[in-house]
């Protein structure tokens, strides 16, 4: 694969492709004090011959510098399923978790109309945010304050506040399991909560344990909800949730330690 290098104005603190069909070419990343949204075109998408497809080139065709932050680093990014670049009106909507304990919901039409809703409730750095993937009406977040919160993405109110046993490291939903979300905790526990009834507190339905602390990331396979993966220390851990709460497989990953674990979205 040929490389396309994008120069940034500082260290990249968070980066996320939009996983939804109507805006799959959008890439959001934060660097220094800025949030950028790019449109990324992969050359093979418009090629037909087998030979041409062997060389893939990613080309950044458009960049928007949407926000400027002052010492409030963006720690994590999540795309809303309402994001759309295929049909008019175009729209991008993101949740941004910040080190100052707030969450920003940003909506833009790329024509100068950009709105920002700030969610306040955490008391320490926000480590992960995740839009509910079917309608995007709610956002889940976890932070170093050992809580997981479910927010109204439009009004900014806290719908549910869940006390965790330790710092929350990751949170994610799965479109094949509507209303269920997974929380990864620092000490190595992954818990699944049922949030289908918004009038009732989310109830834990299942838990997994990676038999080690120092969890750095966790993800729920979008194509097979029985598969769960995580990174902890220098290893990655894999579960088959239909068989056991203990890992199915553990392998060495990066000698210097793993930061992020993600399943392929396609």
What's the CATH H-level superfamily name of one domain? YVTN repeat-like/Quinoprotein amine dehydrogenase
* Number of helices in the DSSP assignment: 0
Q: What is the correct CATH architecture of one domain?
A: 7 Propeller
Radius of gyration: 19 Å
How many beta strands in the DSSP annotation? 20
Structural class: mainly beta
Sheet having the most strands: 4 strands, antiparallel
Read across the widest sheet, the strand sequence of neighbours is 1-2-3-4
Gap from first CA to last CA: 18 Å
Subunit organisation of the chains: single chain
Give start-end ranges of low-pLDDT stretches: 51-56
Percent range of helical residues: under 10%
Question: Could you tell me the mean pLDDT?
Answer: 88
Instruction: Please identify the top-level CATH class of one domain.
Output: Mainly Beta
Keywords: WD repeat
Characteristic terms for this protein:
WD repeat; 4-stranded antiparallel beta sheet; 266 residues; Methylamine Dehydrogenase, Chain H; WD40/YVTN_repeat-like_dom_sf; WD40_repeat_dom_sf; mainly beta; WD40_rpt
Structure description:
- InterPro entries: NUP37, WD40/YVTN_repeat-like_dom_sf, WD40_repeat_dom_sf, WD40_rpt.
- Keywords: WD repeat.
- WD repeats lie at residues 119-161.
- The chain is mainly β and 266 residues long.
- The chain has a domain at 121-266: 7 Propeller (Methylamine Dehydrogenase, Chain H), CATH 2.130.10.
- It has no helices and 20 strands.
- The model is unreliable at 51-56 (pLDDT under 50).
Concise overview:
0% of the residues lie in helices and 48% in strands.
């Amino acid at each position: 694969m040929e490389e396309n290098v994008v120069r940034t104005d500082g260290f990249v603190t968070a980066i996320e492709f939009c996983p939804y069909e109507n805006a799959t070419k959008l890439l959001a990343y934060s660097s220094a004090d800025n949030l950028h949204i790019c449109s990324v075109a992969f050359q093979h998408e418009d090629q037909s011959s087998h030979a041409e497809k062997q060389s893939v080139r990613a080309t950044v065709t458009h960049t928007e510098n949407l926000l400027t932050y002052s010492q409030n680093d963006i720690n994590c990014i999540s795309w809303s399923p309402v994001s759309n670049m295929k049909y008019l009106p175009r729209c991008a909507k993101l949740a941004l978790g910040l080190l100052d304990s707030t969450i920003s919901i940003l909506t833009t039409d790329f024509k100068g109309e950009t709105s920002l809703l700030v969610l306040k409730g955490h008391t320490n750095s926000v480590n992960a945010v995740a839009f509910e993937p079917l309608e995007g009406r709610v956002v889940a977040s976890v932070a170093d304050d050992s809580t997981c919160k479910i927010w109204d993405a439009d009004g900014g109110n806290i719908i549910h506040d869940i006390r965790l046993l330790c710092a929350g490291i990751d949170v994610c939903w799965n479109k094949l399991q509507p209303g269920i979300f997974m929380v990864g905790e620092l000490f190595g526990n992954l818990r699944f909560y049922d949030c289908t009834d918004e009038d009732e507190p989310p109830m834990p339905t299942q838990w997994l344990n990676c038999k080690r602390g120092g969890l750095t990331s966790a993800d729920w396979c979008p194509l097979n909800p029985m598969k769960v993966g995580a990174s902890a220390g220098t290893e990655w851990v894999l579960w088959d949730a239909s068989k056991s709460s203990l890992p199915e497989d553990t392998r060495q990953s990066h000698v210097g330690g793993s930061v992020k674990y993600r399943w392929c979205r396609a």
